[in-house]
Amino acid sequence: MKRIGVLTSGGDAPGMNAAIRAVVRCGIERGLEVYGISRGYSGLIDGEIEQMNRRSVGDIMQRGGTILKTARSKRFMTEEGIRHAAAMLDTFGIEGLVAIGGDGTLHGAQELSELGVKVMGLPGTIDNDLAYTDYTIGFDTAVTTVLDAISKVRDTSSSHERNTIIEVMGRRCGDIALYAGLCGGAEEILVPEIPYDINALCRKIVMSANHGKLHSIIIKAEGVDIGSQELTQEIQERTGRETKLVVLSYLQRGGRPTMRDRLLATMCGAKAAELLAEDSESKAIGTVDGQIVAYDLADALKMEKEFNQDMYRLIEVLSK
Ligand code: F6P
């Protein structure tokens, strides 16, 4: 293989730039020509493709977002769009592709792979919702941002003796809420994986207050089947205690990537370049038990994510 492309797609995640940097520099080191594709699959369909060099990825490691830009392409979800994307790669003589993104991006990568393109999927999403890897690029930074927010909210919640609900992202995955809740000392976390019981939740808040707790911090994952406003109102009415809502939204997606995210991104990017230089079949690259792994792409996407029940139960114990 002589020429490869790299793109970022779906929601941006801190660490994507570090991954692009590693793909470009390690690819060139291995004798490959590396092309950057702007705006994800959408830019691929439109031929927004330019050759990159070592200097094109200078000074980006520490930046959040993605220098290649990103998009959620509706056209790429159609059979025609996928064929068009594959034809564009062929037109540019690009035989291998590194696709950095979440679940949708990796499924798109699999579709291209079925048309003969060798694709390396890198897990770039704050959601940590990909089953084949212990962590995704961006997750650690997002949780660190949420922890910082919890600490600040804790000060004011405690001064005013209020309940505060902090809504975090994650789509249908509760990992951001789980890790931030455990490490931030939340009283309660609500995640899509575990059905919640409003009576038990409110009982706990009232009893905690009776036992001298000044405030309750509740981390709610966005994927839970109740609107955050509605939940806030319900808790206020049932507990008789002032209850406030903080929605962290895109704050969680921006900012400087942490060491862990830069490291994971760099190691995954380097592995992708190595595998493409060796003409490997399509893979999903990630980390398991601290090691970099590369699974068959189709197999990786069939794996089912397990929610960490032990961590969840620990929050129950620690928050009493
Ligand atoms: O997948 C990352 C993510 O931030 C999710 O947590 C969230 O549900 C979604 O993207 C938001 O998407 P958008 O950027 O389209 O608003």
Sequence-ordered SSE layout with sheet pairings:
Blueprint: E1 3-8, H1 16-29, E2 33-37, H2 40-45, E3 49-51, H3 79-91, E4 96-101, H4 103-114, E5 118-123, H5 139-160, E6 163-168, H6 175-183, E7 188-190, H7 198-210, E8 216-221, H8 228-239, E9 243-247, H9 259-277, E10 283-288, E11 291-296, H10 297-302, H11 309-318
Parallel strand pairs: 1-2, 1-4, 4-5, 5-10, 6-8, 6-9, 7-8
Antiparallel strand pairs: 2-3, 10-11
Question: Could you characterize the architecture of this molecule?
Answer:
- With 320 residues, the protein is an alpha/beta fold.
- The chain folds into 2 domains: 182 residues, 3-Layer(aba) Sandwich (Rossmann fold); 115 residues, Phosphofructokinase domain (Rossmann fold, 3-Layer(aba) Sandwich).
- The protein is built from 11 helices and 11 strands.
- The strands form 2 sheets. The protein has a 7-stranded mixed beta sheet with strand order 3-2-1-4-5-10-11, with helices on both faces. A 4-stranded parallel beta sheet has the order 7-8-6-9, sandwiched between helices.
- β7, α7 and β8 form a beta-alpha-beta unit.
- The longest helix is centred in the middle third of the chain and has 22 residues.
- The N and C termini lie far apart (58 Å).
- The mean pLDDT is 97.
- The structure holds 6-O-phosphono-beta-D-fructofuranose.
- 6-O-phosphono-beta-D-fructofuranose (F6P) binds next to loops.
- It is found in: Cytoplasm.
- Pathway: Carbohydrate degradation; glycolysis; D-glyceraldehyde 3-phosphate and glycerone phosphate from D-glucose: step 3/4.
- It holds the Pfam family PFK.
- Catalyzes the phosphorylation of D-fructose 6-phosphate to fructose 1,6-bisphosphate by ATP, the first committing step of glycolysis.
- GO terms for molecular function: 6-phosphofructokinase activity; AMP binding; ATP binding; fructose-6-phosphate binding; identical protein binding; metal ion binding; monosaccharide binding.
